[in-house]
Amino acid sequence: MSTDAPLKIAVTGAAGQICYSLLFRIASGSLLGDRPIELRLLEITPALKALEGVVMELDDCAFGNLVNIEIGDDPRKVFDGVHAAMLVGAMPRKAGMERGDLLSANGAIFTAQGKALNDVAADDVKVLVTGNPANTNALIAMKNAPDIPASQFNALTRLDHNRAKSQLAAKLGVPVTEVSHMTIWGNHSATQYPDLFNAKVGGKNAAELVGDEAWIENDFIPTVAKRGAAIIAARGLSSAASAANATVEHMRDWILGTPEGDWVSMAVPSDGSYGVPEGLISSFPCIVKDGKYEIVQGLELGEFSRAKIDASVAELVDERNAVTELGLI
Ligand SMILES: NC(=O)C1=CN([C@@H]2O[C@H](COP(=O)(O)OP(=O)(O)OC[C@H]3O[C@@H](n4cnc5c(N)ncnc54)[C@H](O)[C@@H]3O)[C@@H](O)[C@H]2O)C=CC1
Ligand SMILES: O=C([O-])CC(=O)C(=O)O
User: Fold this and answer.
1) What tens digit of pLDDT does each residue of 257-271 get?
2) How far does the centroid of ligand 1 lie from the alpha carbon of residue 104, in Å?
3) Which atom of ligand 2 is nearest to the CA of 231?
4) From start to end of the chain, where are the E strands?
5) How far apart are CA 75 and CA 209, in angstroms?
6) Closest ligand (CA of 112)
7) What is the pLDDT of residues 187-222, one digit of tens each?
């Protein structure tokens, strides 16, 4: 990617809740600072009118680096030449549902979008899936885009990562900036495993500082893993501004690199690391340099961590089997 031409960024579900925050964060520079950008916004036909209203508001912000906006309902046109694609558009869950319950409703969106990306996106496109169930939707898009290297498909677990950092900082009464080396393992679902045994606070081991394994198991892990449901119960709608923030942070780090001396959680196609079957899109600790991520190797996983990761990975296998049966991959 050249650094002066506007970066073409596709965003789907552009008239929805998450995008009502996300688009303004991207356009105001949270993603790439003052680098010029062009937004390519995809919606379904009935939502195009509402999207026109969002575009009017983007215009009314007079963002200096937003060079152009194109909207449409045809992914082959909207994705043409894009370097980054944030796939947000999908139905959100309602109270009482698990994210996996959305597979049959949302899965088909990602076959069509994967094929369109395959045919028209820039060769170096980075595809980040936020729409739920994010990991398996990313798998569907990836499998439907055989000409794009698998490593260019990620799913979002950064919101879980941020939730885990915030819960840990609150427990220890420290600023969230003291927390580093957080990892979410597995699926963006209630089975995810937020790992305090490899996390650090002020450079010291987080689990040792907490010193309370019962809190980790019975309080911390379920609070992080079920935070999405708690927000739906409180707001009547799923998280939106925090999801937009996480989407920006994941893509920003993927393009510009992760902070020196730390890692972030990214759901990426497994290369077999930590015994996660190759090809599943599972969350790992990752660092990014020169626009390429690497899974951090060599972390110690005790019996407790191993069992938690295995349970989440088993759910990813089940989801992959379900979408195979649905003929989506
Ligand atoms: N991975 C994560 O951490 C999180 C994921 N999510 C998920 O993000 C998704 C979007 O959430 P919201 O913005 O709150 O939902 P929303 O319902 O407000 O907006 C979704 C938008 O997507 C559009 N859409 C549907 N099919 C489309 C298609 N084929 N192409 C383009 N656009 C399409 C809809 O018209 C709608 O405007 C949901 O699946 C939600 O569960 C939400 C929070 C966090
Ligand atoms: O919980 C949901 O359905 C929305 C979501 O993914 C989250 O907030 O983590």
Assistant:
1) 999 999 999 999 999
2) 14
3) 8
4) 7-12, 37-42, 66-72, 84-87, 126-129, 153-155, 179-180, 183-185, 193-195, 200-201, 204-205, 264-269, 281-289, 292-295
5) 49
6) 1
7) 999 999 999 999 999 999 999 999 999 999 999 999
The minimum-distance atom of ligand 2 relative to the CA of 160 is 9
CB atoms within 10 A of CB 24: 17
- What is the rounded distance in angstroms from the CA atom of residue 56 to the CA atom of residue 52? 6
Q: Are 139 and 280 in contact (CB under 8 A)?
A: yes
Q: How far apart are CA 136 and CA 155, in angstroms?
A: 8
Residue nearest to atom 9 of ligand 2 (CA): 228
**Ranges of the chain whose pLDDT falls below 70:** 1-3
The end-to-end CA distance of the chain, in Å, is 30
Report the candidate in 155, 197, 100 with the shortest Cα–Cα distance to residue 281. Answer: 155
Is the CB of 92 within 6 Å of ligand 1?
yes
pLDDT confidence of residue 3: 57
**DSSP assignment of 150-178:** GGGEEE--HHHHHHHHHHHHHHHT--GGG
The interface pTM score, or ipTM, of the predicted complex is 0.99
* 237 Cα nearest atom in ligand 1: 14
User: Of 161, 181, 188, 250, which is the active-site residue?
Assistant: 188
Told to judge if 188 belongs to the known catalytic residues of this protein, a careful annotator would answer yes
The pTM of the full predicted model, rounded to 2 decimals, is: 0.98
With CA atoms as reference, report the closest residue to 161 among 231, 252, 225, 100: 225
Say if residues 8 and 38 touch (Cβ distance below 8 Å). yes
| Residues 6 or more apart whose Cβ sits within 8 Å of residue 179 | 165, 168, 169, 199, 200, 201, 206
Question: For residue 11, what are its two tokens?
Answer: 């965003």
> CA neighbours within 13 Å on the CB side: how many for 147?
11
Question: What whole-number distance in Å separates Cα of residue 219 and Cα of residue 304?
Answer: 15
Q: Report the alpha-carbon distance of residue 67 to residue 181 in Å, rounded.
A: 36
Phi/psi class of residue 126: alpha, beta or left (left: φ > 0; alpha: ψ in -120 to 50)?
beta
